[in-house]
Design a protein that fits this description.
Elements: E1 10-11, E2 18-24, H1 29-44, E3 49-55, H2 65-74, H3 79-88, H4 95-104, H5 120-132, E4 140-143, E5 146-148, H6 154-161
Parallel strand pairs: 2-3
Antiparallel strand pairs: 1-3, 2-4, 4-5
Helix pairs in contact: 2-3, 2-4, 3-4
Length: 164
């Protein structure tokens, strides 16, 4: 698992001086609410802040979280497009819908069933890293390796990242 890049899903400029790491679950309503706020912080930071998404599917309470994480991972270079599709349609994350979202996101390969299984190690690596960092729920944010305990709200995040 050491060959899996924990920062592989980066939104924003890779050399941004401020890094937010989000441990998220595609079936979590709080993650869904946080997604546009986090993107807005990145988009408005003028390259100062980037976002790294790591999978933390709460499969005990969200029955489709793991398959959604696998589908997002299987989306490869279209990860962020799939990320947006999954959150936009969070209440319908069964395989037939996942295939439709992948098509809309521009993914050409299958993201469900056996085709998604090779991506299990990456999702598990993210999950295990989160457990090791004390993550218990989603979204869990870390700003420059320090756990963020504030509200996932635009002004609070701007202030926490120095973008205010």
């Amino acid at each position: 698992m050491s060959d899996i890049d924990p920062d592989r899903h980066l939104y924003g400029h890779p050399d941004a001086p401020v890094r937010i790491v989000e441990y998220g679950d595609f079936e979590c309503p709080y993650c869904q609410a946080a997604a546009p706020i986090l993107k807005k912080v990145m988009d408005e930071s003028k390259g100062r802040t980037c976002l790294i998404f790591r999978h933390f599917p709460l499969f005990e309470v969200h029955p489709f979280a793991l398959t959604a994480a696998l589908a997002a991972e299987a989306s490869g270079q279209r990860f962020w497009d799939m990320h947006d599709e999954l959150f936009a349609h969070q209440n319908h994350l069964d395989d037939s819908h996942l295939a439709e979202y992948a098509y809309r996101a521009g993914v050409v390969d299958s993201v469900i069933g056996l085709a998604a299984q090779p991506y299990r190690a990456a999702v598990e690596a993210d999950y295990n890293r989160g457990v090791g960092e004390g993550v218990r729920g989603t979204p869990s944010l870390f700003i420059d390796d320090v756990r963020y305990a504030g509200e996932v709200e635009l002004e609070a995040l701007r202030k926490a990242t120095g973008s205010a």
